[in-house]
Design goal:
Elements lengths: L1 H12 L5 H4 L6 E5 L19 E3 L4 E8 L3 E7 L3 E10 L9 E9 L3 E10 L10 E8 L1
Parallel strand pairs: 1-3, 2-8
Antiparallel strand pairs: 3-6, 4-7, 5-6, 7-8
Length: 140
């Protein structure tokens, strides 16, 4: 009986983790939206300048923005923030007048201050006439 328990324990110890088990902990993912770029979170005197965020080196950043009919495009990314993918998901009704959710993923690869500039065209929810949101990150 003891041998069976030991063998069972050894077999369980050799089971490989699944992809879901190897995903980074939620504390390594920063999910931001347009709310960080609009008052009261942002500076009401500087339209489109989003509230700065502290992110650890190698932290994952995801920016989620509602769109369609407007679209969002990345205009610039600092060298210490590496683009990691984009996707567009159906999301009717989340915010009045929009039908999709634009997702932009980045990896904070090196320490320092970095920015991601994303433009909405035509400007619908952005508060700057140019439709630009500037997300600032302090990678620590």
């Amino acid at each position: 009986m003891i041998v069976g328990v030991l063998v069972g324990g050894i077999v369980l110890a050799n089971i490989q983790p699944t992809a879901a088990q190897t995903a980074p902990p939620i504390s390594h993912m920063w999910v931001l939206s347009q709310a960080y770029c609009l008052p009261p979170q942002s500076d009401p005197m500087v339209a489109g300048l989003c509230k700065p965020q502290d992110v650890p080196q190698f932290g994952e950043i995801e920016i989620q923005l509602p769109g369609t009919p407007s679209t969002w495009t990345v205009q610039s990314v600092s060298p210490n923030l590496t683009p990691a993918g984009t996707q567009k998901l159906p999301n009717a009704g989340r915010i009045t007048g929009t039908n999709e959710l634009f997702l932009f993923d980045f990896l904070a690869t090196s320490k320092g201050v970095g920015t991601i500039v994303i433009r909405e065209f035509p400007p619908v929810i952005s508060t700057s006439p140019s439709g630009v949101f500037t997300f600032t990150f302090n990678v620590i």
